[in-house]
Amino acid sequence: MSLVYLDNAATTQHKPQAVIDAVTAAMCSFGGPGRGSHQAALDASLAVFGARQAVSNLLGGWGAASISFAMNATMALSIAIDGLLFEGGCAVTTAASHNSVLRPLFRARDERGCTVRIARIAPDGALDWDDYQRSLEGASLVVATHASNVTGDVYDVARVAHMAHEAGALFVLDAAQTAGAWPLNVVETGADVVCFTGHKSLYGPQGTGGLIVRPGLEIEPLLEGGSGVHSFDERHPRFMPEALEAGTANAHGLAGLAAGCNWLADQGVASVSERIAAMANRFANEISAVGGVRLLGGGSGQRCGIVALNVGDVDSGVVSDALSQHYGICTRPGAHCAPLMHKALGTETQGVVRFSFGAMNDDADVDAAIAATKELASEFSGE
Question: Measured between alpha carbons, how far is 117 from 136 in angstroms, rounded to an integer?
Answer without folding.
Answer: 8
